[in-house]
Every structure is written in C-alpha cells, then in structure tokens.
Amino acid sequence: MKDVIRLQSGGLVGPDDSFHIDSWAKADVNLITHGHADHARSGSGEYWCTEECAPILRHRLGSDIHLRTLAYGQRERLGNCWISFHPAGHILGSAQVRIEHETQVWVVTGDYKRNPDPTCQPFEPVPCDTLITESTFGLPIYHWTPANVVGQIMDWWQWCRGEGVTAMLFCYALGKAQRILSELRHVTNEEVLLHGAVASLTDIYRKQGVPMVPTRLVSETTGSAEGRLVLAPPSAHRSPWMKRFRSVSTAFASGWMAVRGIRRHRGYHRGFVLSDHADWPGLLQTVEESGASRVLVTHGNSHTLARFLREVKGLRAESLAIEFGEGED
Amino acid sequence: MEVFAELFERIDQTTSTNEKIRIIADFFRRHDADTNAWVLFFLSGQKIKRLAGAAKLRQWAQELVGYPDWMMEECYAAVGDTAEMVSLTLAAAGYTGRSESFGTLSLGDWMTQRLLPLAGMNDDTRGRHIVTWWKQLEPKAVFILNKLLTGSLRVGVSETLVYRSIAEVFELPPSVIASRLVGSWSPSGEFFTRLGLPADSTTRNDESSDVLLPLPFCLAAPLDGEPEDLGEIGAWQCEWKWDGIRCQVVKLGSQIEIWSRGEERITGTFPDLVCAFHNIPGSWIVDGEIVAGDWRSPSSFHILQKRLNRKQPSAGLLSANPVSFLAYDILQSHSEPWKHRDLAERRMYLEQLLTPYVGKDVGISPLLTPVSWTDVHKLRSMARTHGAEGVMIKSKRSLYETGRKRGIWYKWKIDPLTLDAVLTAAQPGTGRRASLYTDYTFSLWNGEALIPIAKAYSGLTDAEIRELDRWIRNHTSERFGPARSVQAQRVFEIGFEGISRSERHKSGYAVRFPRILRERTDKLAQQANNLEDLAQLFESLDARPTRGRFEETRSVKSLPPREQMSLNLVDEADPA
C-alpha cells in the first residue's frame, strides 16, 4: 500500500502533493499543527489551522495570510483525503492532524504532551493505522513528575525577594510563558513582569479567555524590579536587555532542565523541569493508545524511539529525518 | 542521604561564592558532627574506596528496567554520567521512592552502617542492598548515593571555599582551618569538633604527628595582557615554566613525604627521589617540580606519564624512566616557617640549603636574567626549545600565599603550535556537555584520505557548541552508537603543546593537549593541512636547542615539550 504521507525536502506531504504539513517549503496548502516558529513558516499560499491557533499564526506570519480555520474534530475534504484537527495539548490551538485516505487513517501528532495544561485542550488519543509522532524527549530518562513546579518557582521567587534580586525566569514566549502565568494563579495573584516578546503573545491568550495572573510590560514598570518575577524568552539571556536589571537570579523552565549536565551548560542559576512535550512514558502511552501498527518517528531522539518500538515493542517503526529546530521546549 | 542531596542541589544551583559559603556554613550549623565530618570529607574532594563500579550500577539498573544494551548506551550519551543516568532511568520507569518513606538516617549513619560495610560483601549481596535503597530513595538522593558508591562525587566548591565555610562556623581564620585540613584525615565527629579548637591548641608537623603535611600550595595566575604592565622588571624573578608534577617535599628528620598539588601523597611513586632527598640533611619543606629525565635536560613526556599513578614501581620501570626534581622554593626549615618571608630571601636560603647537594637527581630551577621586558618576550619565544612551556614571573616581594592570589605570581605560557584540521567525527560529551556533540575528532589529509590526529573538547563558546551540535546532527554520514562521522566540510585551527611519535595513533604522532583555537571559515576542507605538515613541525621541534643567552650558570638543554601530566586534569568524565 502506498504511503499516504511522505517526507520530501520541504517536510511532510499528502497524496498528489495536495497539501503539506508544517512545511518549510512554499506550499500551496500548508496544514499547521501549532504556532511555534519551526512549525509555522511564511511563504505558503494557504494555511489551515485550528480556530485557537489562528490569532497566533496571524501574529507570527502577518494578518494578510490566506487562512482557513477548523474547529477541533471538524472534518474537511482536501484532495482525496478527509482532514481533521484534534487536540495535542502542546500549546493553545495545537493540533494533531488526522488524514483519512481511502481505507487508511494516518495521524501526524505535531508536538504534544500528556501532562495537564490549563491553557489548552488536553491531548486526545486518535486511533489510526500509521502514527507519525514527535520524539523530542524520546529517551527513557525523561519523566515529568507531577511535582508542583509552580510551587518551586514560587519558592524561588520568594527567595529572590528575600535577597532583593529580580527573579528572571526564561521560558519560550509562546506556550510555556502563558502556562506558567496561568498555573501561578494557584499560588498567587501578584503581578508578573513580561519581556515584550512574551507580552504580545500573552495578550492573544488573554483575548481567548485563558485565565492568568496580572501582567505588565517591563518597560512600563516604574518601580524597582527587585523582588519581582520577570518572564523573558531564552534569547534575552545575556543580551543587552538584561542590563536594565541591577541584580538577577536566572532560571529556565524546560524539560531539558531534567539533566544536570544540560542545566550547567546553559548557565542558568536554576532549572525548573517543565515541558510542553511528551516524556518517555507519554510517548509510549500515545503509541499504544493510537493502536497504530506502524509508527514513524520525527524530531529529537527519533532513531532511539523507533528502534525501541521495533525491537522491544515489535511494531513497524522507523525514523523520519525531518530537519526541525533544536528541540525547543 | 536526602539532606546531603538537598545540600548538593543547593550548592549546584548557585554560582555565587558567598552564597555557597552561606549554604555550607548553614548546613554545618544545623547538623551533627558525624554528618558534618562526612559532608566536609566529600566537599573537600576526598573519596572513599569505590564500593561499586559504574558498570555494575548500570548492570543492576538495566536488570530492573529491562532495556537493551544500546538503549542504556543512548541514555548514557544523553546524560554523560552513569550515576545520574541510572537515577533518571529508574525514576522514569517508576523504580525510585519518595523521601518521606525512608526515615531520617543521617549521612554519618548511612556511611558507617550501610555504605562502608558493602566493601566486605560479594557483588550479588552488594547489588541487592543497593537496589533496595534505590527503590526507597527519591531520584536526587539515588543520584547522590550512586555518586558516593562510584567514588565520583564532585561538588562545585573549591578547597578555599570549604575552608572559609568552616572558618565562618567556628569563627577562626581560614588559614587555621586550611592547615588542619591538609593531607588525609578520617571523617569522624571527633575530628570535625577538633577543627573548632582555639587557634593555638594544635600545631602542625609537631613531634607526635606521624603524617608529614604539606602547606597549601601557592599558585600562579595566567598572565593576561603584556608583562610590561607589571612595572619595573627588577621587582620580578623569572624562571622557566617547567612542565612536570608540581609538588612539595616534606622532610622531618629521616621521614619524607612527597605531595602533589592536589594534596595527594605520591611518595611511593618516586622512591628514587626519596633516596636522593635523604642525602639532604635537616627538616624542611621544599616546593618544586618533578620532571622527566635529568633536570639539566628534561626529556620526553612519555617517561613521566609512565611513572604516574604507580604506587610501587618496579626497579625496571624506575631505571627505564628516570625522573629528577627541580626546586622552586623553601617554605619551612627546622620547624621555622619561611612562607611569610619575601621570595628573594627564600630563594637565597633555598640555594644555600640545596647547592651542596645538587646532582643528577636534584637541581634548583635556574633563575633567568632578563634586563628588560623585551628580554622576557624573547625568553618566552625560546621556551619550547628549552623544554619549558613558558616563563614564570614572580614578585620578589611575594610571600608564599595560599591558593591563587592575584598579582604575585604569573605564568606566561607560550602560544601553542597550530594546524588547520578537518572535523570528521563527533560524539556526545560528558558532564555539563552531555547530550551535545562536543567530543570532536579532527583529521589531516594524507593523499585523498583524512587521518585522525586529535580529539579536542575545549575552545568553543557554548553558543558555538550548540550551533556545531545542530550542524553535526544534520550532516551525519554514519552513526556508530552515539558517535557519528560527519561530512568533511568544516575546518578548525587546532592548537597543541607538543608532538611526539606514537605507534598507537594511526597518524604516527600524538599531539599534546589539543584544543580548538577558532574555526577557519575562510578555508575549504581541501585546504586543511596534511600529515606531511605535522611531520615537518615535529622535525623542527626535534632540533637541538642552543644554550640560553639569558640563563644563569646552570644551562638547561632540552628536547621537545612533554606531555601534560594527567594529575588534576581529569574532568568530570565518567568512563562507563
């Protein structure tokens, strides 16, 4: 049987080139799983995404893009396929793409996680014949404990306040920042300061009704930033922007912080293990729940997960070498 | 175990020295003397005998989780540390416990009741105990337990920081604590309590002492910038920077101990030198360097390397690989301390003491006699032909300080030898470079083929490392487990300290202390150097040196530079 989804130089492509998924080539029709920069690239003729993802995509790619939005679960005909988006639990509006072609069902997960996140709909298992899954954290060393990460962040913030320093928390500006702002509501209602890149995306989340603690732009703050919590993108670390703060304690919220060597290499004072990707048990659970007899693995440790599924789980599995970004989380 | 894991985590989370001192001092104030003694033992870098090898830990963990070998290998490559890899793998598979379930056994009790008794057990019993503990401890305590078992725990604190923490607790000068902590001691509550005795109630190297202790080493700082900034040259004493094993020889009557810079006792490794020191009468502490061969003409690095880490070398090894000692400094004589006198005065006394006994085994590091900084520049450029790796510049007024004090002693090393080589393979690093491809293999052309000449780990910034890591992942030509060969495209300028013949290396040469100086983005792979260039460089270094124009009386002839000694250079690599 012919593969419904194939890998071309520009990414994943559907039958007869009728659509691309998260393409980095200029596609006629580009289905977008979510708004992160390595998945949503400019230059395509027409974009399809979820309703929740649309404002993010317009913000990133321009308001003049040709955009078609679908509700989660809404089935649409595209070429000779039925297409639908299903919640991936990664960030607001993130989706798995289900493709039904003749007798086959394929699912492309995009990025996803199985842990709870108050800012987006939880991952929904979608039965399929062939699953294309990500494997950013595809090694049995990654395991997100239900530990109260936001409590740890709060403890650190309190400590910073005691020391009279700014608590500078780096995290991806889209998704992770808003998840933290939303989870912080359980422990505080205090205002958090934002880097500009975080603020614009936070506004988009707020407009869609995601509850978060009050926020303010760093540049609009008149008082001292000492003892305050600031969220900023990792690119701001050690940038001139940091010079405005007198003394800071830096931290990074990411799944990568689970490994001590990486924590030390990145040079942050603190590392909080908070990921928007599936951990190892989450990946295995997802493969199992999909019921897929064939699994294609992209992103990160794809060789390892594919080999494990093949040799230990007895599935047809192989690695798809897609050149995405550096496994941002 | 949990409190120690917590302490370790807190130290690990800060880069501020003062914060670390506060954390450690707080810990000591809140815990019992037994626990404190053990914590101090580990913080000051001492180790218990290895109770379980990394390979064993990995095997026991593998038996629990049931992963194939290659998966354990991949996990190790991503983590770069067996102890942590095991704790993460067990945690992800649900085999670790929660701290609350495991009572409050103190670290002292953990050590004496649980860990130390493992030494007398067979592998199976040991494994059973360890697996039981794994299942009860929380992941971060499992990590620390594993580190203690494998003897590979390294806490990011310097010795002086530990001294200062204890000094703060006991309100004593750090130097008093430092002198009480030099050498080997057993971690007991009694010992820890004794550290807090008033300053004058313990003396060092007194009659009752059966261990001859060194003084904390005084260390040189690298010279950044030009020596001209140091002012008048007459205020400075210049010597060659020898490349051997820095040590202190402590002699008390007929007793002799040799201590390495890492405060390891290396007396047993050098019985030939001990013999020679016996000929020098009196009781004294002399600082100096063990070099390969005759100090008047120090020879190849191979010899020193062969002598390292041999506790009881055979007569054959000794005669085949002779060494000698070059004295730098005198710190104590007949229980009279000299460390608080000026270097110029110490040097005069050193010569007075040793000159009658100078022979083939013991020499005094010759003073260089530059009359201007221009001369020092010239000396430095000649260092390699003298078998030295640069010039030492010490203030004549300097006291023998503890540690690396600014502004008194400088080492001005020579620029490295360089070649442009092609990146041909990489594998993930260990420790803080885990999961990034940072162990690079560089090759030179030999006709159409690229022959590996060096593995290098250092020299790139973190941002450059991440960029190269991405490039390597996307330009892999072959995978061998976690290692990858990559397309021959990128050229790097590789610096190194010396070249020697080697039969173990395919290229026929071993380069010493290779590191990356910069990427040659201006060069194509085809424009990198070839093996012939390396051979020529080797020949040029092998030429006999000329007598030093600036050198006082004792001329030092020498051969090519020698291998960097391996003491104190071990990074956190965990060879599993």
Tags for this model:
heterodimer; A: about 325 residues; alpha/beta; Metallo-beta-lactamase, Chain A; Rossmann fold; 7-stranded mixed sheet; 6-stranded mixed sheet; B: about 575 residues; alpha+beta; DNA ligase i, domain 1; D-amino Acid Aminotransferase, Chain A, domain 1; OB fold (Dihydrolipoamide Acetyltransferase, E2P); 3 domains; 19 helices; globular
Could you describe the 3D structure shown?
- The complex is a heterodimer of chains A (329) and B (576).
- By secondary structure, chain A is an alpha/beta fold.
- Chain A has 2 domains: 6-142 and 277-319, Ribonuclease Z/Hydroxyacylglutathione hydrolase-like (Metallo-beta-lactamase, Chain A); 149-272, Rossmann fold.
- Chain A contains 7 helices and 19 strands.
- In chain A, α5 (260-266) links the parallel β16 (248-253) and β17 (270-272).
- The longest helix of chain A has 15 residues, at 149-163.
- Chain A starts with 5 loop residues before the first strand and ends in a 10-residue tail after the last strand.
- With 576 residues, chain B is an alpha+beta fold.
- Chain B has 3 domains: 2-150, DNA ligase i, domain 1, CATH 1.10.3260.10; 221-413, 2-Layer Sandwich (D-amino Acid Aminotransferase, Chain A, domain 1), CATH 3.30.470.30; 417-541, OB fold (Dihydrolipoamide Acetyltransferase, E2P).
- Chain B is built from 19 helices and 20 strands.
- In chain B, α1 (2-12) packs across α9 (139-150), α3 crosses α7 (107-115) and α10 (159-170) crosses α11.
- Classes of the chains: A alpha/beta (329), B alpha+beta (576).
